[in-house]
Amino acid sequence: MVLHLSSGVHDPIGPAASGPVLVAFLVFIGLALLWVFTLATHDDHAEGLYVADRSLSPVFNGFAMAGEQISVVTLFATSGAIALFGYDGFASAVDSVLALGLLLLLAQRIRDSGRYTLGDVFSLRAFGPAPRIAAAVVTLAITLPMLVLQLRAGGIIAAMLIGLSTDAAQVLCTVLMGGLVVCFAVVADLKGTSRMHMVKVVITLVTFGVLVVASLRKFSWDAGTLLSAAVDKSVAPDDYLSPGLWAHISSLVPLNMISDHIVMIFGTAAMPHLILRVAASRTGRSARRSMSIAVGLTGAYFLLLIATGFAAAAVVGGRDIGLVDGNGQASPILLASGALANGSVMRVALITAVASAAFLVILTTVTSVMFAAAVCLAHDLFARTDGRRAGSRHVRVLRLALVALGAVGLTLSAAAHRYSVEFLAIFSMSVAATCVAPVLVYSYFWPGFNRRGLLWSVYGGLLLCTVLTLFSPTVSGSAYALMPGAEFNWYPFRTPGLVSVPTAFLLGWLGSRNPGRSPVRAENLAQQGVI
Questions:
Q1: Which of 10, 217, 423, 424 could cross-link to 474 by cystine, CB 3.0-4.6 Å?
Q2: pTM of the entire predicted model
């Protein structure tokens, strides 16, 4: 997904509505933060803090799992990609639903194994500190880029909502929003975050449902007319509903799209915060029920998101969206501003609802990513002691890890506010798809998988992702690249998944076929619920 918002001067709301919207938005933030601090936990029991004592009901956890899919990336980047690039954006939305279907196949095994961090999962077939160190490296490689992306996009969107679009205002909003998120992450636990996810799901679905209804009303309730208008007002009417319009995949279109699909599907299913949430279910069967509910809710969300993207193209127009933001990520806000008549109370309410949903999305998504990374560091590396004081030590290390991750993420996101950072999103998802997904599949379905195969797969895949991303068109050689003036993009595809994911599976197989240490005995794995 593209996550480079333009920094030109723009005010999509208009001066007449900006005052009421800002007041209502600040009131909502105040109420939300007040509620956040009522969710603060003083529990020093590590498993209660990390996975809510595995007590989450299927419905509750299903809503929370669906909330994990409503991120800044999907809410703004996917809807913007649909508004500007039509088919290519639509295809990326479908991938996220397919990814949950893949996770549905693994959910019961993950829960029954009793593991909830990547270090735990990596240690299923391997002993010693090496698998946990590898898991921590992979978790940070996935988490830090996502933190930078989400915090940066959240700050720019907040600046846009209050009508301030200078670089200084964007950096200030990034720091302020990020500070609020870090505070929430430090005081909350998994159960408190889950409650926020539930509220976010309801508000987002209702808000985007109203956006779609208001847009259909402008076209006499005819979806076909709306789609025709979206095509006619797009930047390329002849290519809008065909693959390849997205500038990033204009060459080698079929292979580029296959690579993107591999990364999106496998990467989304292998995110550490999703594995943590699956492990919080009461039983393996509850985990499967939670995933089934999440698939249904996520499917409804993406249907509304797709409709919103096409509605934005029809109501606002692709060219006008592109003038405000070159990647279309302002399209939900622009649609909320244009779907109803100026001066109406409903228009102010709709814009405020979109702004509130955006705030909840930033708050919960960044918190989930940070929390999962901090749990990995606390549980797998720095707090591996047992005894009477182990619980308080886990909590202390967790809090310190959250503060450190927040500080690093805020610093990097503020420093990167002028740059195109699409490569960070690609790198993060590619590492998850390459270094985590093969390990999950082998650990739960192949008894012969062992320590050497795991380390070969993880470190070989990480090295390959790094090299191929560095020499891809997202870093140099295109207008959207990190360094558009340079050209060292000898790797032709936008994402490394077409090469890195099969190679990681192959490395895992080759390493396990040449064992350095005997694999874990099958009966021990059966006792853990793995096989």
A1: 423
A2: 0.85
The mean pLDDT value for 227-237 works out to: 84
DSSP string, 354-415: HHHHHHHHHHHHHHHHHHHHHHHIIIIII----STTHHHHHHHHHHHHHHHHHHHHHHHHHH
Q: CA 49, 55, 56, 58: dihedral to nearest 10 degrees?
A: 160
Other C-beta atoms closer than 10 Å to the C-beta of 442 total 23
d(CA 174, CA 152): 6
Report the candidate in 174, 152, 179, 95 with the shortest Cα–Cα distance to residue 424: 152
pLDDT digits (tens, 9 = 90+) for 455-470: 999 999 999 999 999 9
Sequence-distant (≥ 6) Cβ neighbours of residue 363 within 8 angstroms: 32, 36, 180, 181, 184, 196
pLDDT of 3 strictly over 50: no
Spatial distance between the Cα atoms of 12 and 139, rounded to a whole number of angstroms: 37
The DSSP line for 252-267 is SHHHHHHHHHHHHHHH
**Rounded alpha-carbon distances, angstroms, from residue 241 to 2, 231, 236, 464:** 19, 8, 9, 33
**CA Rg, the chain, in Å?**
22
